[in-house]
Design goal:
Blueprint (H helix, E strand, L loop, with lengths): L5 H4 L30 H4 L7 E2 L3 H5 L2 E7 L7 E7 L4 E5 L1 H4 L3 E5 L7 E11 L10 E2 L6 E9 L5 H5 L7 E11 L7 H7 L8 E7 L10 E9 L10 E6 L3 E4 H8 L25 E9 L3
Parallel strand pairs: 1-7, 2-14, 9-12, 9-13
Antiparallel strand pairs: 2-5, 3-4, 3-10, 4-6, 5-6, 6-8, 8-9, 11-12, 11-14
The structure holds zinc ion.
Family: Belongs to the alpha-carbonic anhydrase family.
Protein name: Alpha-carbonic anhydrase domain-containing protein
GO molecular function, one term: zinc ion binding
């Protein structure tokens, strides 16, 4: 099938585990802005997000890869939605977490199994900004970060506290604006109505993770070793940024912008600026998605 490319039609991914209600903020003019995040955030050599260059040469060299989703990963599930002051974050009920995982094939994803932990979003105040990763120096309105940890660890926290550069796998999805609502967002937006203030939390039902990804059965992914994009910016993330866009309507995105942050201001522009790539390589894959029976 035809691969609709991101850099033609639009589109792309991000992460925010770590501190939930810390003093950090995204405004460069404030004392709590990105330059003040400290330690690894400022000194690290493998920081995220980064700009991803996409061109014919890169795509022609893309290796084929497979990505398996467990059966529960593609099911509609109960979830918990939280406004942590920095983002809106969805996590699954604890008893459903361990059976919702993805796994690479053909040497993809370091041949590890990655357990789903949480999903959160980064978005802007207008359509020209919002994503953390940029593509050929262009930003898009929103980026979703599907955060997973390697099954070699017992928890997300244990994985973050390791020094393993592949401890976490974060799938980044870029959302571009569409005229029609994306029905996959409905469970989140229904729960979002209960979450105006920082610290608010609510329960939701029928969240389907796979439906929030681009619809294609194959897409381009860009992998590199990077970091969490919030303090303490631990360099433990195998990033998988999807190069094909998924969709959200303008009115759906507005519902995210209407949420309030810890200072009772609109929660928006919660994206970190791109970081130096340094010596890192970004590997392009033409990835085939496979839903597992198990
Ligand atoms: Zn994020």
């Amino acid at each position: 099938m035809k691969l609709a490319l991101l850099f033609f039609c639009a589109a792309f991914l991000f992460i925010t585990p770590g501190k939930a209600n810390g003093p950090f903020c995204y405004d460069e003019d404030e004392d709590c802005g990105p330059k003040s995040w400290g330690d690894t955030c400022n000194k690290g050599r493998r920081q995220s997000p980064v700009n991803i260059e996409i061109n014919y040469d890169v795509l022609n060299k893309a290796n084929k890869a497979q990505l398996y989703y467990s059966r529960d990963y593609s099911r509609s599930q109960d979830f918990i939605l939280k406004n942590n002051g920095h983002t809106i974050q969805a996590s699954l009920r604890a008893d459903l977490t361990s059976t919702s995982y993805l796994q690479g094939g053909q040497d993809n994803l370091a041949n590890k199994r990655y357990v789903f932990s949480q999903l959160h979003f980064h978005w802007g105040s207008n359509k020209d900004q919002g994503t953390e990763h940029t593509f050929n120096d262009k930003s898009y309105p929103m980026e979703g970060h599907f955060v997973h940890y390697s099954s070699e660890f017992n928890s997300l926290t244990e994985a973050i506290n390791s020094t393993d550069p592949n401890a976490l796998a974060v799938v980044g999805v870029v959302y571009v604006l569409s005229d029609d609502d994306n029905t996959a967002f409905k469970p989140i937006l229904k729960a979002l109505k209960n979450l105006k203030k920082s610290g608010d939390q609510t329960n939701g039902a029928n969240l389907n993770l796979v439906k929030l990804l681009p619809k294609q059965e194959r897409f381009y992914t860009f992998q590199y070793n990077g970091s969490l994009t919030t303090p303490d910016c631990a360099e433990v993330v195998l990033w998988n940024v999807i190069g094909n866009g998924a969709r959200i309507s303008k009115s759906q995105l507005q519902q995210f912008r209407d949420v309030l942050d810890a200072h009772n201001k609109p929660l928006e522009n919660n994206f970190r600026p791109v970081q130096d790539l340094n010596e890192r390589e970004i590997r392009a894959y033409e990835t085939q998605v496979i839903l597992s029976k198990y």
